[in-house]
Model the fold of this input.
Amino acid sequence: MTRTHTGRVVAVTGGAAGIGLEIARQFAEAGARVCLGDLSGNAARDAAARLPGTVHGCELDVTDERSFHDFLAVAEAILGPVDVLVNNAGVMWVGAFDAEPDSATARMLAVNLHGVIRGVRLAAPTMRTRGRGHIVTIASIASKLSPAGEATYAATKHGVLGYLTAVREELRGSGVQLTAIMPGVVDTELAAGTSTGAAQLLQPRDVAAAVLDAVARPRFEVTLPAHLGPLVGLAGALPQWLRDIVLRRTVPNQVAAVSNSSRRAAYEKRLVDGEPDS
Done:
């Protein structure tokens, strides 16, 4: 069943820039009322002020239980019961596994995995009580593939897909929908300097459009580009030696991609230090 977005209340994490900002923009343009949260409250409010329609921005730290709870409470108090939560906030450190700072590992686990778990745990019970709601999580094709140089990042995204798969079964028949959006490399600061491999470089608008479409026509797994899903499934059916050959020719080696490059230095320093993105 196709659903309209007019009047829908949408909460977006990591909404001040990149994919999150574009998701907020497209929902607002479609008539939804949007609350976008970001680690920098000022950035969230500035972003909200630039968007059309009814958009509110506020500070949100997805690694903090009280902050996430308050974000959802503020969204409901100002805009009404949250119909859609978009778990978008995410961070990524890229490089050799044995060069990864422990603080980067901890940050990816806290934001990418525990942040999603926290969002689902806080939002889904209320939605279940109302008998409706949709939680969309921006995962990654790294939920099913594991590029060299993205070991911990891929581990968090594999964890996200596993968690959502289990919770989806628990929510079956409740009226609450779950969706995992799994794009390839997207043209954002998070992916700066990395390689797309055999896939095309995506834009934030591509991911945002997929989110709105999945809310309009609910389904659990969405891969971008769409053909990646069947290809990954086909590769998984191959014997290991042949699968290795196929994946090495199509999945980028990000250790090699970022070697001797400084393009990610500023972003990854903020990640390690736990600072808000500018």
